[in-house]
């Protein structure tokens, strides 16, 4: 039986015959009393998943198919995706000698499910050759330090075209980030969506002062010197959390969590998680 997911939503201008539902996909105006009552019921029960039987019990069997089609077309609900792919090995690529040495020293001997590779640049025959040798049951993790946005975009596009299972990691704005795990056929938000949303949210100028923020300076540095190393992997607390993140990614049993969640690691070695969303200008849904 199919399971449907209800994206987190809020109900605005709520009345019995006219309501507005807003979620991550946009805004929908509802005028059907039964559908409005249905969303109020979901809100009351704090229900973010339901089966076809729940729809049948609420609307009746005769209306079930048409109601489901309307809710799907309006992006008010989504079919639950099955991410039960158990990859057998995690392969890490990095352009940082320090990160490569650190992971080899601390992790490689203790975890046979992790493999590490150093590449001087991702846009190289060496990287492409190694990717082509990998089997389909591999998770590919790309760690960029320094972060070159052109190289990042190229690598993401290359892996997307191969329908590879992958995620990315990089230092940015004095923190370290891991994107969600992405695979083209799943149509979930991709690592390009993540970094684009991140940069868009951080890039700004002072609201009350006619001076650039720290983020603007960082962007200038990246534009002028794309090999400038913002993070040199000398922070023990952050390093330990980065290694922990790599080990957690190597556990395929947690794939459902990491397909929709990105990770932010601060200088104190603390991790924060948040949901990934599609960036409206990304081509990952094409």
From TrEMBL:
<dbReference type="InterPro" id="IPR030956">
    <property type="entry name" value="McbB"/>
</dbReference>
<protein>
    <submittedName>
        <fullName>Uncharacterized protein</fullName>
    </submittedName>
</protein>
């Amino acid at each position: 039986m199919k399971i449907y997911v209800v994206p987190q939503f809020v109900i605005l201008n709520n009345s019995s015959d006219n309501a507005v539902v807003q979620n991550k996909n946009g805004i929908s105006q509802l005028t059907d009393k039964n559908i409005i009552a249905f969303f109020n019921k979901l809100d009351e029960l704090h229900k973010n998943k339901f089966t076809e039987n729940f729809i049948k019990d609420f609307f009746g069997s005769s209306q079930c198919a048409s109601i489901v089609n309307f809710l799907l077309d309006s992006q008010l609900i989504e079919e639950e995706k099955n991410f039960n792919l158990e990859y057998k090995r995690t392969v890490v690529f990095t352009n940082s000698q320090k990160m490569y040495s650190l992971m080899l020293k601390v992790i490689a001997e203790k975890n046979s499910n992790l493999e590490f590779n150093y590449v001087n640049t991702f846009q190289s025959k060496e990287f492409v050759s190694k990717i082509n040798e990998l089997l389909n049951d591999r998770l590919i993790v790309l760690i960029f330090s320094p972060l070159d946005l052109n190289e990042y975009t190229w690598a993401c596009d290359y892996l997307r075209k191969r329908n590879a299972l992958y995620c990315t990691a990089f230092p940015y704005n004095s923190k370290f980030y891991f994107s969600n795990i992405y695979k083209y056929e799943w149509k979930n938000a991709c690592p390009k969506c993540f970094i684009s949303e991140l940069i868009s949210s951080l890039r700004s100028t002072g609201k009350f002062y006619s001076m650039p923020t720290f983020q603007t300076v960082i962007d200038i540095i990246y534009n002028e010197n794309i090999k400038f190393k913002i993070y040199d992997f000398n922070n023990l607390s952050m390093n330990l959390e980065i290694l922990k993140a790599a080990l957690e990614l190597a556990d395929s049993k947690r794939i459902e969590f990491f397909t929709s969640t990105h990770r932010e690691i601060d200088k104190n070695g603390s991790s924060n998680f948040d949901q990934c969303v599609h960036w409206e200008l990304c081509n990952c849904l094409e």
